[in-house]
Fold Large ribosomal subunit protein uL10.
Amino acid sequence: MGQSLEQKKAMVQEVSTVAQNALTAVSAEYRGLTAQQMDRLRAEARERGVYLRVVKNTLAKRAVAGTEFECLTEALDGPLLLAFSQEDPGAAARLIRDFSKDHNALAARNVVFGGTLYAADQVERLASLPTREEALSKLMATMRAPVQKLATTMNEVPGKLVRTLAAVRDAKQGA
């Protein structure tokens, strides 16, 4: 049974709202996945903060109109699911990449990042971006390194003086 006009409008509105707040989007072909596999994919998407939706292409085109994902409309053909990263730019790409390793039926088709449409081969690049926590820890390590090196160097001066005085003392006691 098909969807009513009201259901279609609600779906377009829902996807449009998500698209306005999303950071990146990945479209993937899901032909060949079983219902159980799709349920598992949806569960993983919820855990990772990814909005995942199977939408008819005509409705998806209306939903992304006026957003930075509007460039996706030219690539919407065939049975596709849309995955929107809401918190972490690489989350949707990592979800599709990881799930497609175990399920060959799922294949990434396009990626949208910063209002630009990229081919499927860019999914790996986007998926390899560090998460927010990883990026912050790398930044903090980079900021901490010069201070730690300075403290180590400054601590080495009195230590070297103490070792020199101990060597002079030992030389005088031995003589």
About this structure: The mean pLDDT is 87.
